[in-house]
Amino acid sequence: MIESEINKRYCQSCGMPLRFDVEKYLGTNSDGSRSDEYCYYCLKDGKYIVDIPMSEMITD
Ligand SMILES: [Zn+2]
């Protein structure tokens, strides 16, 4: 069986392999559905969580 190969996809942001068998590892869209393109590190509630430099974050 090569079932695990079929759904082998990677997060479009960080490149982490997406695990469709473990839903909690998938990102969540704003409507609460699961993303099939981003992991939960990178997409949460439809918002992209990216590595923003600290200098960007404190800028008004
Ligand atoms: Zn990711």
Secondary structure class reads alpha+beta
**What bound compounds does this protein have?**
zinc ion
Q: Note the gap between the termini.
A: 53 Å
Strand order of the largest sheet: 1-2
- Tally the helices: what do you get? 2
Beta-strand share of residues: 25-35%
What value does the Rg take, in angstroms? Answer: 14 Å
- What's the count of strands? 6
- Low-confidence runs of at least 5 consecutive residues: none
> What kind of sheet is the major sheet?
2 strands, antiparallel
Helix content: 10-25%
Q: Would you list the SSEs in sequence order as H and E?
A: HEEEEEEH
Secondary structure elements and pairings:
Elements lengths: L2 H4 L2 E2 L6 E2 L7 E3 L5 E6 L3 E2 L2 E2 L5 H4 L3
Outline the structure in words:
The chain has 60 residues and is α+β, with helices and mostly antiparallel strands. It has one domain (3-46). Helices cover 13% and strands 28% of the residues. It has 2 helices and 6 strands, in the order αββββββα. It has helices spanning 3-6, 54-57; strands at residues 9-10, 17-18, 26-28, 34-39, 43-44, 47-48. A two-stranded antiparallel ribbon has the order 1-2. A two-stranded antiparallel ribbon has the order 3-4. β1 (9-10) and β2 form a beta hairpin. The chain is elongated and about 40 Å long. The mean pLDDT is 83. Residues 11, 13-14, 16, 38-39, 41-42 line the site of zinc ion.
